[in-house]
Amino acid sequence: MKQDSDAAPGIDPLKVLVVANSPVNRIVVAKIVERSGLQPVAGPPETAAAMLRPLVPGAVILDGGADNKACDILIPAIAAARRGAGGTLPAVILLSNRTGTPHSLGLPEIVDVVVAKPITPEKLQPVIERLIAPARA
0.85 exceeded by the pTM? Predict the structure, then answer.
């Protein structure tokens, strides 16, 4: 897998920022990211905004917690990274206790896809690969 030379400057499409309050969830999701041939960078919401400054990943995976709001603190930083990169990256995946679309769940427009829990490789890996594929092509 090579990094796309046409990717926007400052974006590393091979990196995926995994954000969750639960260390167990961070590890589970990071392992699924690795299975996709990508490099996870994981942390809690409190430190993830700082991780976005030097790193504009190809995707951000947010564990929404019980109310889909556990990572709301990061939405402005992700939006700024997306504007700075001049496009639709980083792609944003929200892990939710509810099923639906970002719109039907009343989520911020920056969320591209919702994946319902429980999180399994069979559910999450294809979504990651679909969202990152254009940047890796």
Answer: yes
